[in-house]
Each structure stands twice: as C-alpha cells, then as structure tokens.
Write a structure and sequence with these properties.
mainly alpha, rod-shaped, binds calcium ion
Length: 86
Amino acid sequence: MKKFNLWGFIFVSFVCLVVVFVLLTGEEKTTTTGASKPSRLYDEYNCEDFETWQQAQEVFESAGGVENDVHHLDRDNDNIPYESLL
Ligand SMILES: [Ca+2]
Ligand SMILES: [Ca+2]
C-alpha cells in the first residue's frame, strides 16, 4: 500500500507540474502574440524625422494611411502627410 500511495503522490505531483507548465506556456504565448503585433502603434515620427516628403509618405502609407495615422503625420486628414515638406 505504501508503495502505491507513493506512486499516486508522484503521479498527482507530475500532473500538477504539467498543468502549471501548460498555464505558464500559455501565458508566454499570449505575451508573445501581443508583442508580435506591429510595434509602431504609437506616435513615433515627426516632421523633423524626415528629410524628404517621400520618406514621410512611405511611413504614412505603411502605417495604414489616413485611416491609421498613428504618427500624426497628416493632421488635416487630406491623405497627404506634411505638406510643408513638399
Ligand atoms: Ca508625430
Ligand atoms: Ca495633410
């Protein structure tokens, strides 16, 4: 009986470890998924970051254009970033 109880204890402990491992791994995956989203979701660029209007236009379009102007490159929402650089 003693031996059986010991193996039962080891089995339960193993199951608990697996559950904890799965939970931790799941949390890690969730964190990784969040981090793998586009990193530029905030205002990262300003007019002084660009030498030419073309550069501003490329960043503006790659971020999603006027629908997702996270860098506030086109404050008047006419789909043309930084007219002052033109
Ligand atoms: Ca900006
Ligand atoms: Ca504009």
